[in-house]
Design a protein that fits this description.
This protein is α+β, with helices and mostly antiparallel strands. It folds into 2 domains: 29-119, Hemagglutinin Ectodomain, Chain B (Alpha-Beta Complex); 122-176, Head domain of nucleotide exchange factor GrpE (Nucleotide Exchange Factor Grpe, Chain A, domain 2), CATH 2.30.22.10. It is built from 3 helices and 6 strands; from the N terminus they run αααββββββ. A 3-stranded antiparallel β-sheet has the order 1-4-5. A hairpin with a 2-residue loop joins strand 4 (160-163) and strand 5 (166-169). Helix 2 runs antiparallel to helix 3. The mean pLDDT is 84.
Length: 177
């Protein structure tokens, strides 16, 4: 019988005694809970900081791209009067008897135009006789015209240009009234 009694004694010894306190959780348990809460707070701070940094990287990348676009836009806008001067000079050279003497001038004008076109600059197409659209055209003046010319473009004073899909300068036109 001694063999059957021994396992019973061992099982009684294996069960740990629970410390019961009328004061509440033990000091170690309180420290563990406090440490877990501190860890969760630090994890939350880390995740928020990480997300904020990712947003910062995206924002600065967009700002850098926008800066390059606007810097290029400013330079191209500054060159528009030069393009206008080239156009006027070529028109006058075409009227001249010695228009072949201005061939180099035309080549330079074409080269400048092609360089700007490669950067996204395009003229806004507008011709006399088209219907005036205040979203696309800038009316410089209105003149009296026949019924068939009312609300239509009579003359184009200055070309308009757009960079990609953004209008840099509206075409200046005379509108029939």
């Amino acid at each position: 019988m001694s063999t059957s009694e021994e396992p019973k004694k061992k099982s009684k010894k294996a069960a740990p005694k629970k410390a019961t306190s009328k004061k509440g959780p033990s000091k170690e348990a309180k420290e563990l809970v406090a440490a877990k809460e501190a860890l969760e707070a630090e994890k939350d701070k880390y995740l928020r900081l990480f997300a904020e940094f990712e947003n910062f990287k995206k924002r600065t990348s967009k700002e850098r791209i926008e800066l390059f676009k606007t810097a290029g836009q400013d330079v191209i806008t500054a060159l528009l009067p030069v393009l206008d001067d080239f156009d006027r000079a070529i028109k006058e050279a075409d009227k001249s008897e010695n228009s072949s003497e201005f061939e180099g001038f035309r080549l330079i004008s074409n080269k400048l135009g092609e360089s700007l076109k490669s950067k996204g600059l395009e003229p806004v197409s507008v011709e006399a006789g088209e219907t005036f659209d205040s979203e696309v055209h800038e009316a410089i003046t209105q003149i009296l015209a026949g019924d068939d010319q009312q609300g239509k473009i009579i003359d184009v004073i200055e070309k308009g240009y757009k960079l990609d899909d953004k209008i840099l300068r509206y075409p200046k036109v005379v509108v029939g009234q």
